[in-house]
Amino acid sequence: MMSTFSIAIDGPAGAGKSSIAKELANQLQCIYIDTGAMYRSVGYYCISQGIDYANEEQVEQALSELHLKLTLEEEGQQIFLNEKNISLLIRNNQVAAAASKVATYAAVRKALVKMQQEMSKSTSVVMDGRDIGTVVLPHATLKIFLTASVEERAQRRYKEYVQKGEKPCLETLKVEIKERDYQDSHRKISPLKKAEDAIEVDTTYMTIDEIVKQIIDLLKRRL
């Protein structure tokens, strides 16, 4: 790819956004900006510092204390919070719940969106989240909206937990995903929404390789 480009990937939790975005960035040799990890980092900071993440004022006051950096290492994308690698520490349900809450705060979104937009100005990027095509990168070269059935997304999460040695309840995961969908699509600030010019891709019956190939083909038509 000779031209600078940006790919915005949106969709509900468990649709495969992160896996697809990472593989796209790998094959296209560009930067992957993990927006979800950035919001998780804010949630993690609140939890680790004893800040009530349900208190918007307290979270807003803490923003000036956060310094985030994304790097590409041999082991993959890493995220640093105040020079500490927290890539593994932010991958649990407690942090996920905190991230979903702080993401509803205007000050948090404004601060992180500014960071994300700055990252995309000078280099080709792949970015995934829930408002990338509508808010963060409204002029992205290509906008993709990934979807998958609740059952499929729950199965994916179930397998992830099992691989980690955990024993989740599949039915509980389905309920949690439905609740997350409702919360994300009904929040007042930048709700989950498909951009008018986004191309919808249902990943329910597709492999990662098939999805990545389809998106790269779509990108080539735009360049």
Describe the structure.
The structure is a single chain. This protein has two domains: 1-30 and 127-213, P-loop containing nucleotide triphosphate hydrolases (Rossmann fold, 3-Layer(aba) Sandwich); 33-122, Rossmann fold (3-Layer(aba) Sandwich). The chain is an alpha/beta fold and 223 residues long. Helix 7 (150-163) packs across helix 8 (170-186). The protein has helices spanning 17-28, 35-48, 56-62, 93-102, 106-120, 132-136, 150-163, 170-186, 208-222; strands at 6-10, 31-34, 68-73, 76-81, 84-85, 125-129, 142-147, 199-202. It has a five-stranded parallel β-sheet, with helices on both faces. Strands 3-4-5 form a three-stranded antiparallel β-sheet, with helices on one face. The relative contact order is 0.22.
Low-confidence stretches: none
Looking at how many chains there are and whether they match, the oligomeric state comes to single chain
Radius of gyration: 17 Å
How far apart the termini lie comes to 8 Å
Shape: globular
Order of helices and strands: EHEHHEEEHHEHEHHEH
Can you identify the CATH class of the largest domain? Alpha Beta
Helix content: 40-55%
- Provide the β-strand percentage band: 15-25%
Q: Find the structural class using helix and strand composition.
A: alpha/beta
Give the CATH H-level superfamily of the largest domain.
P-loop containing nucleotide triphosphate hydrolases
Strand arrangement within the widest β-sheet reads 2-6-1-7-8
Q: What is the strand tally?
A: 8
Q: Can you summarize the main beta sheet?
A: 5 strands, parallel
Number of domains: 2
Separate helix tally: 9
Instruction: Label the CATH architecture of the largest domain.
Output: 3-Layer(aba) Sandwich
CATH level-3 fold name of the largest domain: Rossmann fold
Overall pLDDT, averaged?
A: 92
